[in-house]
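ZP: hey, is the phenylalanine complex queued? I don't see it on the tracker
AM: it wasn't, my bad. submitting now with these inputs:
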Amino acid sequence: MDDLFSLKKAFLEEIGSVDDLAGLQLVRTKYSGKKGLIRARLRDLSSIPPDKRPLYGSTLNDIKNFIEETIRNRELIFKTREKEQRLETEKLDITLPGNFTPFGRRHPVNQILSEIKDIFVSMGFSIEDGPEVENDYYNFEALNIPKDHPARDMQDTFYISDDIVLRTHTSPVQVRVMEKRDPPLKIISPGKVYRCDSDVSHTAMFHQVEGLMVDTGISFSDLKGVLELFIHSLFGADTPVRFRPSYFPFTEPSAEIDIGCIFCSGSGCGVCKTTGWIEILGAGLVNPKVFEMVGYNTSEYSGFAFGMGVERITMLRYSIDDIRLLYENDARFLNQF
Ligand code: PHE
């Protein structure tokens, strides 16, 4: 019996110093395991004298139950404690700010380009594309700008080879379309163009929208009507519009189109150089020489063409005074539009 009491005592001491589930498992194996101390005593029960056996047996059984129950209770306590600790470390702080992914937005030049396209599409124009790396022929010669023509000086060209250039305007697209299709034509060609030029109002790459309409009986008044409607849609119905005589090799007669200065309403300021007017477009009736190059019958067809810089229009719409701001990719600037 003494052996049983010292077993219980030893158990109580050991369990008292156990502090976690792993330690508890060791004690469990030692006492209630298959090869544990309790089993050993149960196995040896026959060696106890028969008269002492019932008391010994029931005491052993009590101790066995006590040990098992104590271990179960501690196990429950340790498991609960472990769960609480885990919950504590895994706790989510729902007041922390999330990972913010900023919303992108369309570049102001792209926004204005879309507006321009929408206006012309609503007037029945279709949109045409062309290459940015262009043959000298389409960029110049087919537009009545021969190799020795002084008008080549108007556009500072990036040459890739003698005959291949980065297009200096989107006008070559009109030639490419006319070569493929017969009139009537009503197209615009938006896209990137390149000139060796850089200051507050010029970048080496910028965007143009070219327009072309060809049909029987097209006159200058058609050009005026289309462009006035366009300008009034883009800048507001009371914007004054002025056609000023000009020169382009591919149009005859040619004009530059001004709008009343939107900064000073015509009274004169730094932006309009005190004239009250700001130039926004080049245009004219297609020079018959251009039609001849693509094989159109000049006695049957006439047409008009126009071209504009999208950055310039964007700057006017948003009062931006330096074109380079558009391409520095400073999100603080671009987010304003
Ligand atoms: N292509 C001309 C330029 O880039 C603009 C233009 C187009 C003028 C069509 C008249 C007609 O300067």
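AM: back. The first strand starts at residue 126 and ends at 127.
ZP: great, adding it to the tracker
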